[in-house]
Write a structure and sequence with these properties.
With about 375 residues, the protein is of the alpha+beta class. It contains seven helices and 21 strands.
Length: about 375
C-alpha cells in the first residue's frame, strides 16, 4: 500500500521508536534504534541521533537510509537520506529528508505465517540447533531436540526467507509440547526489541499480502534508472496492464526499496553512477531470498548482454525500448517465478508438523 507525502505525518508521533537502516550496498544493512523527536513538513524529520556502543554514530550529508516503524497495526517504511554533516560534537539529534512515498503494510498482532528455517537456541551456555516453524510479531514456534523448561529465557538466531538475519533475539519459552523427535517450543519475544518486531512485521505483512490475493496478487515492477523519459513510459505501460510500479533513481535507493516493495521483477538501467548494473546484479544474486528475482537490464551497450547473462540476468533490452516486448518478457518471467513459489515444496511430515501446531498457537495467544 502506497501513501504520498501529504499523508506521511499521520503515521508519525513524537517519541515513537523507529529503526534506521544504513549501508544499503552491503549484503546485511546496518540498523540502529532511535526515536522521533519532531518534523517540519515537508522538509525533514528529526530523530535522536543513533548510537553504537554508547557513542553517537557518524552520519554524512546525503547518506541514504531507510526508516521503519510500527504504527497502529501497520508496518511503515520509507526511503530517505541524512541531511546533517558529520560533526565531532555531541549534537543529540539528526535530520532525515521528508520522504516522497511511504510503504505501509497492515498486520494483526497475533497473525502467524508458516516458515521453516534453521535456527539456533541458546539457553545459558548451551546452544541447540532447531527450526523455526512459524512466526508472529510477538514470537515464534521452534522445533528442536532439546530439553528446555517452560519459563526459560532463551536467545534465538535465524535468517528469514528474504535474507534478513535475526540475531540474538531475547525470548521466553511460554509452552513446551513433547514430540517423538524432540519438542515444539512456543517462544515469546521479550519487549523492548522493536527492531526485531519491525523486521518480523514487514515480512509477515508482505507474505499475508501475497497469500490473501493468491494468484491474483498485484505484480510489482521496481525500475532502477535516472532517465525520466524511459521510466515514465515503462511505468505507464505496466500500470495499464494492472501492475504497481516503483522507481529508484540510484542503485543504492533501489537496494533500499527492495525489502519494502518485494517486487515481482527488477529492471535496471545500465547508466548507473553509484553502483554499476553488473555489480548490483551480482550482489542481488548472492543475497539469500533474492536469487530467484528476475532482474533485467536495459541500455545502449549490447556487449554487456553476455556478461549480464553470466551474472544471472533474466534478459537485456536495447534502446530504444520496445515497450510491448519489454512488458511481455518481464510479465512472463514474473508469472513463472510466482508459479514456482506457489508449488508445494515441503514434505508430508513438515505439513503435518504445521497442522499439529495450530491448536497450540491458539492456546499460546490466549
Amino acid at each position: 500500500m502506497r501513501f504520498d507525502e501529504s499523508e506521511i505525518d499521520s503515521f508519525l508521533s513524537v517519541g515513537d521508536v523507529v529503526m534506521v537502516h544504513l549501508d544499503p550496498a552491503k549484503k546485511w544493512e546496518v540498523r540502529y534504534k532511535t526515536c522521533v523527536r519532531g518534523w517540519h513538513k515537508p522538509h525533514h524529520i528529526i530523530l535522536d541521533r543513533p548510537r553504537s556502543k554508547g557513542l553517537l554514530v557518524r552520519l554524512s550529508e546525503g547518506f541514504p537510509c531507510v526508516v521503519r516503524l510500527l504504527s497502529g497495526g501497520k508496518a511503515v517504511g520509507f526511503a530517505s537520506r541524512v541531511l546533517d554533516w558529520d560533526s565531532p560534537g555531541a549534537h543529540p539529534y539528526c535530520r532525515v529528508a521528508w520522504p516522497e512515498q511511504l510503504q505501509v503494510v497492515s498486520f494483526r498482532q497475533h497473525e502467524r505465517i508458516n516458515l521453516f528455517v534453521p535456527c539456533t537456541i541458546t539457553v545459558g551456555d548451551t546452544t541447540h540447533d532447531g527450526q523455526v516453524q512459524n512466526l508472529s510479531v510477538d514470537g515464534c514456534r521452534v522445533h528442536a531436540h532439546a530439553e528446555i523448561e517452560e519459563g526459560s529465557p532463551v536467545e534465538l538466531s535465524f535468517t528469514m526467507p528474504d535474507g534478513l538475519p535475526v540475531e540474538c533475539v531475547r525470548a521466553e519459552v511460554r509452552n513446551v509440547q513433547p514430540r517423538p523427535d524432540g519438542a515444539l517450543f512456543g517462544c515469546h519475544v521479550t519487549p523492548g526489541q522493536e527492531h526485531v518486531q519491525s523486521d518480523m512485521a514487514f515480512y509477515i505483512a508482505a507474505m499475508l499480502n501475497r497469500s490473501q490475493a493468491g494468484h491474483e496478487a498485484t505484480p510489482r515492477l521496481l525500475i532502477v534508472a535516472n532517465d525520466p523519459q524511459n521510466t515514465k513510459a515503462l511505468s505507464g505501460t505496466f500500470e495499464r496492464h494492472g501492475w504497481d510500479t516503483f522507481v529508484a533513481s540510484t542503485s543504492f535507493e533501489g537496494l533500499l526499496r527492495l525489502r519494502m516493495v518485494f517486487p515481482s521483477a527488477l529492471l535496471v538501467s545500465q547508466e548507473q553512477e553509484d553502483l554499476g548494473c553488473l555489480e548490483m546484479l551480482r550482489l542481488l544474486k548472492s543475497t539469500r531470498g533474492l536469487e530467484a528475482l528476475p532482474v533485467f537490464l536495459y541500455g545502449r551497450d549490447a556487449e554487456i548482454k553476455q556478461q549480464a547473462r553470466d551474472a544471472g540476468s533474466a534478459g537485456h533490452f536495447p534502446l530504444p525500448l520496445n515497450l510491448g516486448r519489454v512488458f511481455d518478457i518481464i510479465s512472463a518471467a514474473a508469472s513463472k517465478k510466482a508459479a514456482t513459489e506457489d508449488a508445494p515444496t515441503k514434505d508430508a511430515a513438515t505439513e503435518d508438523a504445521a497442522t499439529e501446531t495450530a491448536a497450540a498457537d491458539e492456546a499460546e495467544e490466549e
